[in-house]
Amino acid sequence: MQSLLSGESSGEGERKTGAQTAMVWALVAVWAAAVVVAGALGAFVGIAPPVIPAVVLGANALLVGGYRSSERFRAAVDGIDTRWLLWFQALRAPIGASFVYYGALRVLPERWASHAGWGDLVVGVGAAVLALSAGESSRARVTRTAWGVLGLVDILTVVVHAQYVALVERDARFVAMVGRLPFIVIPMFIVPLVFATHALLFARDRDARRAPRG
């Protein structure tokens, strides 16, 4: 009888966690939709360059704060399959390809586009490979951590380089493009979640290494 009750409780817990995780996906979808609508209305045209890193830092502060302070939010996020986190990172491959393309057309600053484009291409393709392999062995986790360090360094340097292009070089092409669709979705939605998913992947691999082996 106790075993039966335990099984029912476990099943109920899994359903509850699944519902909470679905809610996280819904919030992510609302966030993306809000950025697209605001971009379509021209709300980001002429945006001051320092606003972008402020949004990235602010969004991640909220996500980290929610994860640490709310058990329900933490359970919901922990319910997201690691492969989905990697597939999100894989979005960097087509984004990187677009940067390379627009840099070649000189619509974007060439040096920045080459830096951001090729880095995102490599990291995005690597994320797709890791998502397809879906390994959880110690070797797979080491590989994923090495990829994560590369991806984090890449996104950090790209953000810093973007500020240099906008504030020091004052390249009008960059400022004009970044405030419009579809590019505004990248700093206002993709980049904050790139940082967040990197942090979550690092934390999961760290916890797996610390877990006792039975």
Q: List low-confidence stretches.
A: 1-8
Q: What structural class do you assign from the helix and strand content?
A: mainly alpha
How much strand? Answer: under 5%
| Main beta-sheet annotation | none
Please compute the radius of gyration using only Cα atoms. Answer: 19 Å
What does this 3D model show about the protein?
There is one protein chain. The chain has helices spanning about 1-40, 50-70, 70-80, 80-90, 90-105, 110-135, 140-170, 170-180, 185-210. It is globular and about 55 Å long. With about 210 residues, the protein is mainly α.
Quick tags:
214 residues, 82% helix, globular, 9 helices, 0% strand, single chain, mainly alpha
Quick structural overview:
This protein is mainly alpha-helical and 214 residues long.
Give the helix/strand layout.
Elements: H1 2-40, H2 51-69, H3 71-78, H4 82-90, H5 92-104, H6 110-133, H7 138-168, H8 172-178, H9 185-210
Helix pairs in contact: 1-3, 2-3, 2-9, 4-6, 4-9, 5-6, 6-7, 7-9
